Each structure stands twice: as C-alpha cells, then as structure tokens.
Amino acid sequence: QDHGAVTIGLSASGEIYMEGKRVDIRRVRGLVERALAEDPQTGVVVIADRDSKTSDVVRLMDQCRLAGAKNVSLAARREWAS
What we know:
Elements: E1 5-10, E2 16-18, E3 21-23, H1 25-38, E4 43-49, H2 54-66, E5 72-77
Parallel strand pairs: 1-4, 4-5
Antiparallel strand pairs: 1-2, 2-3
C-alpha cells in the first residue's frame, strides 16, 4: 500500500506552512493527528529553510511526534516560497 506524507514547510523567519497555507504552531498537532486518523502509516516531512532556527525545527518536529507520527523526516531548503 502506498502511504502519503504530510509536508510541512518552515521558513527562516519561523513561519509554518501546511498545504500551501500558513498555520500557527498550535494547529500543527491537530492537523497531523487528523492526517494520521485517515492513514496511521502516513509520514511527515518537515522542509526547513536552511537558515531556520534549530529551536523552531525541534519544536515543529516535537509537535508532529506528539500527534503520533512515527516517521518524521527533515529536509533542508535554501529558501521557502509561500
């Protein structure tokens, strides 16, 4: 079975994007939980701007794990285009 992935973008200034929309860190957990309810094997890919703060990346990844995501990957991007 082909499982999808939730893609979350993180800009250098700490802005978070999901499905092309800017979201607050407080909404990330619920949105990931909703995706996992549809398919528990769904992975999460955090695409962080290479200039983003490590603390922002860790906070975002923590929210994904608290939502129950077992597979959280990190990718770097030179700049995030909203």
